[in-house]
From TrEMBL:
Gene Ontology biological process: polyprenol biosynthetic process
The protein's name: Isoprenyl transferase
Top-rank taxon: Bacteria
Subunit organization: Homodimer.
Taxonomic lineage: Bacteria, Pseudomonadati, Pseudomonadota, Betaproteobacteria, Burkholderiales
Keywords: Magnesium, Metal-binding, Transferase
Matches recorded under PROSITE patterns: UPP_SYNTHASE
Record-listed substrate binding positions: 20-24, 32, 36, 64-66, 68, 70, 183, 189-191
Amino acid sequence: MVSENGKAVVPRHVAIVMDGNGRWAKKRFLPRFFGHKQGVDALVRVVQACIDREIEYLTVFAFSSENWKRPSDEVSGLMGLVLAAVSRYLARMGDMGVRIRIVGDRDAVSDKLRNAWNEAEAATAHNSKLTLNVAFNYGGRWDIVQAAKAAIKAGVPAEELSEARLGEFMAMSYAPDPDLFIRTGGEVRISNFMLWQVAYTEFVFSDCLWPEFGEAQLDAAIEAFRERDRRFGGVKEAAPALAGA
Ligand code: IPE
Ligand code: IPE
Ligand code: MG
């Protein structure tokens, strides 16, 4: 959505690093798993809020390439939670007009999870209100490497490899680059999220722990985004003509 002065009122594409689930649980003397469980509910809330605000793409970081380093019970808890979330929320997401797309390396996940992802994508493929990209077993570096491999396999000659051409092979080539990047949980880093796509994205870091994130925090991030002056390397206004020229 664009205002009269041409500035985006609402970002078309929002990317979120949903961080802070473990600390949310710890504060309540609960196992980390409960934080992840609450995190799923926060995601469903935020999906609805994005639809209400006419945001077209929401990309969420659900499991990074590096999250395999966590204790095995946490990793298996997360995998089980994803399966449970798909069976619990898939129909609702479909009714809401959400198209689900999974981005990341699917080779390393179980057949059961891979099948659930395929089912979620197939069941929502016709929806167009909001595209929800779930980055799972995803890393920005993985994405660049897989794109390079795919370009080589497609026979793209080195002389033809440009930013635009390589971009066609990136995992989210169907979506515009994110306008707004939000990270909850207080850390101020990218943690290998969409490295290629965030070249000119506006960043908002929030201390809010992900399970507590909702409409008010989303609106605050959008408000901060609106105040940014996006120049994309250019200048704000045309340079004044040189005196006497
Ligand atoms: C983010 O929350 C969710 C995943 C990485 C799956 P964390 O689990 O990283 O929560 P904190 O950062 O330990 O609080
Ligand atoms: C980033 O959070 C990944 C996800 C939210 C899925 P992490 O908690 O894994 O990031 P670091 O380890 O603090 O950088
Ligand atoms: Mg974390």
